[in-house]
Design a protein that fits this description.
- The complex is a heterodimer of chains A (628) and B (237).
- With 628 residues, chain A is mainly alpha-helical.
- Chain A contains 25 helices and four strands.
- In chain A, β1 and β2 form a beta hairpin.
- The longest helix of chain A has 32 residues, at 3-34.
- Chain B is of the alpha/beta class and 237 residues long.
- The N and C termini of chain B lie far apart (35 Å).
- The chains are: A mainly alpha (628), B alpha/beta (237).
- Chains A and B meet through α6 of A and β2, α2 and α3 of B.
- The complex binds adenosine-5'-diphosphate and magnesium ion.
- Magnesium ion binds at residues 44-45, 87, 163 of chain B.
């Protein structure tokens, strides 16, 4: 490796760092002020790119010059900024007080809606963007050719940093943003209308996301997957830098840009893994990132208060459970093939949702990447059968063991964190698994996955396989339910309610959480293994973020405070999805809107809503009498 | 008796399920310094937070400058001219002294003379020397001055001042008393929460005594000083 090569490589690292910083600074500023992790930030970035490939060519038709190109980029970013401001006014304003998990879900609802909108407006095919006039050539640096546009991007990053610095230090708006990042209640008590401050912040954040997206058009073909791929990278940058810190985002973007530029030389396939590993290491050493403040993340409920009182089964629950089991047993006898197929899927998803519920409701560990363990189980079983030459039986048994082993590995890091950082780390780990399965084409089949994952011949009829699935899922659910009411479960709940108090009475909080994470991962892995045989194939959607979100929606739909909730939620969600998805091109939009509605109207889920209805008919507590 | 600037009737407040205030009533007139005295945990801070809408509260009446402020968000109450100086000071430690003051700045209402940095630095000379310094690098006394100055930048007609003398050296407490007197001289009313009777007596016109979330005494400062019974029951430790 000679010097000129190293320089070129680090320059291209700087160019990607610069793009990353522009986008990440927006996310981190928005988080700092509103305390919302805006999942839709990637969608704003994608919108910026799509707007730019539409607007910039129009302007270039008028005059093929660099200023016109830049004008188009700026207009696109401004439109995205307005979109962000509208998003604040319409949605975010209503969810500042709801728990973080719901905020993440609601903004993910926006992701889904924007995806369908983009496909509707621009179509699903990639759109190549125009090159920037006057920047199409290469520049020779130490005899190596380097694209001029990449140099321009580096300069753009520096300009954005400088302008942001001026804005933050020299304007009243910037001072207010910094003050609100620290103590927004006090800012309000000093007479500042937060609503406008927040709308302005969202405008700024969305503008930066849109700018980052619009600047990409000469570099990459614009596509509908841009939102998710950028948001995970940007999450990593902001988490490493410290949520809410602009300088942190800058440093983290620099590190990651270089890591990618040089990592690709050493481990071409796994640069993404390197990036996530860096994040895991940073979070273990500095749980709030390099420049983050503990108060930004600590002391806030990620889960709704008062919904964590897990009730024991009452008579009604027993009857419902009994009836459900009776229906399930009757299904292979009386149901048609389609019903049996749906039955299998519901059972599998119910186990996955139940394992997530175990983690969230009992352990208080809000995982945003539960699909990782489901997918690991599915891939383990699928690959063992197709590539490993094993039969179905040992593969299904090994699936939870392998998923559990990975859960133990990832969980070791995860249980050290809490709140939003924990959620982000689980998401990051899930993305590692996703990336590996997606990129390691020879072994995993990449995007297409692997087909031919069939059950053994004795279980090849749907009806028989249904019984296999029923036996496995029911035993696993019953075993987990036992764990909830065993001393282990009580200790876990004690740790959830107050880690310090649990610590004081001699509970090893980390260890018990780690164990719960592993157990839950193994159960999800079993579900995944069973699922792969029912579909006959495996593919990366089983590990994707939308799958993790589906699981979360199932849990919340059912309500967190009942053991039976996730099962009801899985059945309801899957039936609705199975029914509606073939009927509409707008399933994602429908799902996104439903998630948002659920967060706004029933923050406690369906069974939670039922519980609050019955609560309302109880006599109100007597008003307290003043002591005399 | 002129009409009250701040008027509270039967104010109750709670933190979630824990009820803390049980029907507090009090008044303050323009330009008047009123002390709200009581031991730790008596409900002084909660009263102030309930007034400006930082805790859930209900009241028969709660008005400031003739406006019902029960349903108003904090920023609207602040804009009516009611400033709040919290007990924990809540300085923006990442900002400089000057930037802290900038956050508090609001235009003066109805053509009155606005507080300027110069006027504030005249009352709090220490602040003038550290304009560009980050607030995190200030001593407790300096932070207390800054938090009062920051509220004055909003040109309030009344300031809710929560235990300004707490944890400060006697020299600084002296300065705080002078600051309160200076505020009164410019016509600003003050509702002063205090445990320190000397401090309160030096600056206040009238006093209320609160205990377990209810008002137990109200009268002039001289009456309170003369009433051993009340002082012993509710004020001494
Ligand atoms: N955030 C809070 N949550 C629950 N209880 C509180 C909170 N803040 C204060 N309290 C309780 O309210 C009562 C009154 O407190 P406070 O108004 O702070 O008293 P004071 O300011 O007179 O010392 C005390 O019993 C205190 O324990
Ligand atoms: Mg107090």
């Amino acid at each position: 490796m000679d010097l000129s090569f190293i320089i070129i490589q680090s320059l291209s690292g700087l160019a990607s760092a610069s793009s990353l910083f522009i986008i990440a600074s927006g996310l981190t500023i928005v988080f700092g002020v509103t305390r919302i992790v805006n999942f839709a930030h990637g969608s704003l970035y994608m919108l910026g790119a799509y707007l730019a490939v539409t607007i910039v060519p129009l302007l270039l038709d008028v005059d093929r010059s660099l200023p016109m190109f830049l004008l188009g980029v700026l207009i696109s970013a401004l439109i995205v900024g307005v979109f962000g401001a509208l998003m604040e006014i319409i949605l975010l304003r209503r969810i500042y007080h709801v728990p973080e998990l719901f905020q993440l879900l609601a903004t993910f609802g926006v992701v889904l809606i924007v995806q369908d909108l983009v496909i509707k407006i621009w179509g699903a095919v990639e759109i190549p963007g125009p090159r920037a006039p006057s920047l199409r050539h290469g520049v020779f640096i130490m005899d190596q050719r380097f694209p001029a546009y990449e140099l321009f991007l580096i300069a753009a990053g520096i300009v954005v940093l400088a302008v942001l610095w001026l804005l933050m230090q020299k304007t009243r708006f910037g001072v207010l943003i910094r003050a609100a990042t620290q103590d927004r209640e006090m800012v309000a008590a000093l007479g500042v209308n937060q609503a406008w401050l927040f709308t302005g912040t969202l405008f700024l954040g969305a503008f930066l996301a849109g700018l980052g997206g619009a600047l990409q058009i000469p570099r990459v073909a614009i596509n509908t997957q841009m939102d998710i791929s950028i948001i995970t990278e940007v999450f990593v940058v902001t988490v490493i830098g410290g949520m809410g810190s602009v300088p942190g985002a800058f440093i983290a973007a620099l590190i990651i840009g270089q890591l990618q530029a040089f990592g690709i030389l050493i481990f071409p396939k796994i640069t993404l893994v390197l990036v996530f590993l860096l994040m895991a290491v940073v979070l273990v050493v500095k749980p709030w990132g390099l420049f983050g403040k503990s108060d930004a993340a600590a002391g806030r409920a990620i889960l709704p208060e008062g919904i964590l009182s897990l009730k024991r089964f009452g008579t009604v629950d027993n009857i419902v459970a009994g009836l459900a089991i009776a229906v399930l047993l009757a299904l292979p006898v009386f149901g048609d093939n389609y019903m049996v197929k749906v039955g299998i899927e519901v059972l599998v998803l119910a186990l996955a949702a139940f394992s997530l519920h175990f983690l969230i409701g009992v352990g208080g560990i809000v995982s945003f990447g539960h699909a990782a363990y489901f997918g690991l189980g599915a891939y383990a079983a699928g690959l063992l059968v197709t590539k490993g030459g094993l039969s179905m039986e040992p593969s299904i048994l090994l699936a939870p063991i392998i998923a559990g082993a990975f859960a133990a590995l990832f969980g070791y890091f995860v249980v050290r964190l809490s709140g939003i950082y924990l959620a982000m780390l689980t998401l990051a780990f899930a993305q590692i698994v996703y990336a590996v399965c997606f990129q390691w084409v020879e072994f995993t089949g990449g995007d297409n996955g692997v087909v031919g994952v069939w059950p053994s011949s004795w279980a090849s009829s749907r009806q028989v396989y249904f019984c296999v699935v029923l036996a496995f899922t029911l035993s696993a659910i019953i075993a987990l339910r036992h764990a909830i009411y065993a001393p282990f479960g009580y200790a876990l709940r004690a740790a959830r309610d107050s880690a310090t108090r649990a610590d004081a009475i001699g509970i090893d909080v980390r260890r018990i959480r780690w164990f719960a994470f592993t157990l839950s991962g193994a159960a999800a892995g079993l579900a995944g293994g069973l699922y792969s045989f029912s579909k006959g194939s495996i593919d990366p959607t089983m590990i994707s973020i939308p799958m993790s979100v589906d699981f979360l929606v199932m849990v919340l739909l059912g309500g967190i405070q009942t053991v039976i909730g996730p099962l009801v939620g899985a059945a309801a969600f899957h039936s609705i999805k199975d029914f509606f998805m073939p009927l509409t091109d707008f399933w994602r939009m429908f799902l996104g809107a439903s998630i948002i509605l659920m967060v706004l109207v029933f923050p406690r889920g369906i069974s939670g809503a039922a519980a609050s209805l019955t609560d309302r008919f109880k006599p109100a507590p007597k008003p307290a009498v003043a002591p005399s | 008796m002129t009409e009250a600037l701040l008027s509270i009737r039967n104010l109750s407040a709670a933190y979630g399920m824990a009820e803390v205030l049980f029907g507090v009533s009090l008044d303050a007139r323009r330009g008047e310094v009123v002390a709200l005295m009581g031991r730790n945990g008596a409900g002084k801070t909660t009263t102030l937070k309930a007034i400006i809408g930082m805790v859930e509260a209900s009241a028969e009446a709660l008005s400031f400058a003739g406006e019902d402020i029960r349903r108003l968000p904090s920023y609207r109450i602040a804009r009516l001219g009611l400033g709040y100086v919290p007990e924990e000071r809540r300085i923006f430690t990442d900002l400089t002294v000057q930037e802290n003051l900038e956050v508090g700045r609001r235009p003066a209402r109805d053509g009155r003379k606005a507080w300027t940095l110069e006027k504030l630095y005249a009352i709090f000379p220490n602040l003038a020397e550290m304009e560009g310094r980050r607030a995190s690098a200030m001593s407790g006394g300096e932070q207390q001055m800054l938090t009062i100055a920051r509220t004055l930048m909003g040109n309030p007609d009344m300031v809710l001042l929560d235990e300004p003398s707490e944890g400060l050296a006697p020299v600084i407490v002296e300065q705080m008393a002078e600051a309160v007197i200076a505020m009164k001289a410019t016509g600003i009313a003050v509702l002063l929460c205090e445990q320190n009777l000397h401090f309160a007596a030096a600056v206040s016109d009238r006093a209320y005594v609160i205990e377990k979330g209810a008002i137990r005494f109200s009268g002039t400062m001289a009456e309170l000083e003369a009433n051993d019974e009340v002082r012993e029951a509710y004020l001494t430790v």
